[in-house]
């Protein structure tokens, strides 16, 4: 099976050097956390790649524009912190000045282990690293678990030697391996995000990573192999791709067809391939 480090090199060509080094994983942290099966690796990497914009983002940016703040208000995320939409959008002026210090101190204040806005904990402990570790409480908890002073030195969360540690701690605490074993990306996303924000992008990353994980299809069974891989990427369990259309694959085909309102045939046909995005 292709390694997570290989996936980084092939799927994230612009990845931050610190992340590339972290995924070399000399301590075998991924294996110790059980992120070692094809599905677990693919789901973990899909979440990480989404959260970090293809491993290019190492710390949460506070450079919010008025348009972006308006979207945050419209989504309902920050309504409790501002009197109205206009007040939320007006924060963009302050973000241009302090790059988000006031904003994060406010919206992350008095929660996640942070003190009130005047402590600036919300800014100090804003999202960092592979799964955007956020809040003084999380920095303290993962620091105690791994014996690393994340609370005292927050930027260690994104350091090559430690970047995997808080991410894998969160992954294990939220039982993401179990959700990955069921190939349930919506459930994995809820565990990581608390909702379904960015689900479509996470699905796109999963589909891309899954192709790398399973490798190239064998020439003698290319169509069946690709269909099985595409079914799994779409959330329909056809078993590990092997190019053999057995009972499990036929059941997945029928379930997929029912969900997409295609004719109920347990076979690979042109309409199925087109629906799955295959030629």
TrEMBL record:
SUPFAM superfamilies named in the record: Lysozyme-like, PGBD-like
Pfam family, one: PG_binding_1
Annotated InterPro entries: Cell_Wall_Dynamics_Protein, Lysozyme-like_dom_sf, Peptidoglycan-bd-like, PGBD-like_sf, PGBDSf
Domain of life: Bacteria
Residue span, Peptidoglycan binding-like domain: 226-264
The protein's name: Peptidoglycan-binding protein
Naturally occurring in which organism (per UniProt): Sphingomonas qilianensis
């Amino acid at each position: 099976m292709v390694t997570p480090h290989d996936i980084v090199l092939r799927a994230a060509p612009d990845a931050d050097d610190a992340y590339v080094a972290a995924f070399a994983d000399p301590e075998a942290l991924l294996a110790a956390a059980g992120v070692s099966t094809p599905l677990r690796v693919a789901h973990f990497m899909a979440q990480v790649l989404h959260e970090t914009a293809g491993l290019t983002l190492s710390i949460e940016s506070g450079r919010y524009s008025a348009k972006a703040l308006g979207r945050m208000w419209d989504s309902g995320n920050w309504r409790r912190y501002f009197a109205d939409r206009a007040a939320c959008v007006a924060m963009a002026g302050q973000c241009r000045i302090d790059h988000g210090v006031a904003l994060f101190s406010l919206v992350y204040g008095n929660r996640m282990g942070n003190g009130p806005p005047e402590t600036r904990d919300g800014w100090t402990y804003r999202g960092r690293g592979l799964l955007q570790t956020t809040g003084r409480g999380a920095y303290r908890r993962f620091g105690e678990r791994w014996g690393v002073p994340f609370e005292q030195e927050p930027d260690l969360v994104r350091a090559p030697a430690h970047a995997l540690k808080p991410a894998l701690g969160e992954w294990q605490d939220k039982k993401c391996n179990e959700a990955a074993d069921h190939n349930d990306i919506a459930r994995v996303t809820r565990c990581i995000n608390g909702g379904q924000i960015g689900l479509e992008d996470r699905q796109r990353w999963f589909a891309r990573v899954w192709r790398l994980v399973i490798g190239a299809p064998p020439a003698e069974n290319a169509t069946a192999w690709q269909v099985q891989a595409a079914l799994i990427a779409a959330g329909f369990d056809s078993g590990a791709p092997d190019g053999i259309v057995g009972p499990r694959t036929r059941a997945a085909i029928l379930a997929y067809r029912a969900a997409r309102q295609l004719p109920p045939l347990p076979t690979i046909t042109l309409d199925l391939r087109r629906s799955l995005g295959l030629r």
